[in-house]
Amino acid sequence: RNRTSVTIIGLGPMGQAMAAVFLERGYGVTLWNRTAGKADALAAKGAIKASDVNEAIAANDLVILSLTDYEAMYAILEQAGDLSGKVFVNLSSDTPEKAREAAKWLEARGARQITGGVQVPPSGIGKAESSTYYSGPREVFEAHKKTLEVLTGADYRGEDPGLAALYYQIQMDMFWTSMLSYLHALSLASANGITAEQFRPYAIETMQSLPMFIEFYTPRIDAGEHPGDVDRLGMGAASVDHIVHTSKDAGIDTSLPAAVLEVFKRGMANGQAGNSFTSLIEVFKKPVP
Ligand code: NDP
């Protein structure tokens, strides 16, 4: 039996998956959750169910928080007793600023924080190919890396406690916009009698073509160069305009492609029509006037 043991606070789908994986690997696991009943199934598999949050924190030096957001952390820890000497690995999603404030708050109480941004759903927990961003004091991360790697691969981004949250938010920015584009495309398909299943291979093909574009444009974007040699913003604007009209003709909501068209129009108004669509990054860098 592995003698390492951890405390997990927060037993939503994510915390439960984490506790189950630690138990499977032979780790000692102490649990606490606001709704106590969520610990019962795990206790039946060998986890220790703490009777209050202080007992859970006292049980181990490493305390994993898997909560809805950082507000939930304060709601729980403000009522707890001594936190000194503890390492809190906060895997709750929130803004980088909230993660930085929390790291200071814990430091003032003699504890330390490692921020984490889990990049997989609960089904990805326990798989080495899954990944979590971490940031915070390097020596604290290194000391607990092996234990954290039970959950997912560990991608340490740096000392700033906000970094893991920042990488997570940047990636989620891409994720939600991409997935809504998929849903909008499906609603256009559906209005024309095409099912999600019928469109599935084409949806996958489109998404799989994106890495090639990312590879191609990355050095140009970093160099601040947006030549119109392979694509022109004016061409892109006409293309998006066609999507808006195809959507209108189908009688579906046009707000998503219309928002994209607005961004193209702002680029055109800046005189970028002959440059690549990547010049729109300059539009995005400033708030709407
Ligand atoms: P949930 O929101 O389902 O889990 C919430 C947990 O936080 C529960 O244990 C809940 O307690 C507790 N909680 C919320 N508010 C309070 C409060 N005020 N006081 C005490 N406890 C509170 O989230 P998940 O388990 O799905 O995820 C946990 C974190 O992981 C989230 O930050 C999420 O963004 C992130 N994440 C989740 C992924 C997913 O696919 N699920 C993927 C990647 C990251 P109670 O049971 O009593 O309600």
Summarize this entry quickly.
The chain has helices spanning 13-24, 40-44, 53-59, 70-77, 96-107, 138-148, 163-191, 196-222, 233-249, 255-269, 280-284; strands at residues 5-9, 28-32, 48-49, 62-65, 87-90, 112-118, 131-135, 153-158. It has 289 residues and is an alpha/beta fold.
Describe the protein in words.
The protein has 289 residues and is of the alpha/beta class. The chain folds into two domains: 156 residues, 3-Layer(aba) Sandwich (Rossmann fold); 118 residues, N-(1-d-carboxylethyl)-l-norvaline Dehydrogenase, domain 2, CATH 1.10.1040.10. 51% of the residues lie in helices and 13% in strands. It contains eleven helices and eight strands. The protein has an eight-stranded mixed beta sheet, with helices on both faces. The longest helix has 29 residues. NADPH dihydro-nicotinamide-adenine-dinucleotide phosphate binds next to helix 1 and helix 4.
Descriptive tags:
Rossmann fold, binds NADPH dihydro-nicotinamide-adenine-dinucleotide phosphate, alpha/beta
Topology at a glance:
Layout: E1 5-9, H1 13-24, E2 28-32, H2 40-44, E3 48-49, H3 53-59, E4 62-65, H4 70-77, E5 87-90, H5 96-107, E6 112-118, E7 131-135, H6 138-148, E8 153-158, H7 163-191, H8 196-222, H9 233-249, H10 255-269, H11 280-284
Parallel strand pairs: 1-2, 1-4, 2-3, 4-5, 5-6, 7-8
Antiparallel strand pairs: 6-7
Helix pairs in contact: 9-10
The chain binds NADPH dihydro-nicotinamide-adenine-dinucleotide phosphate.
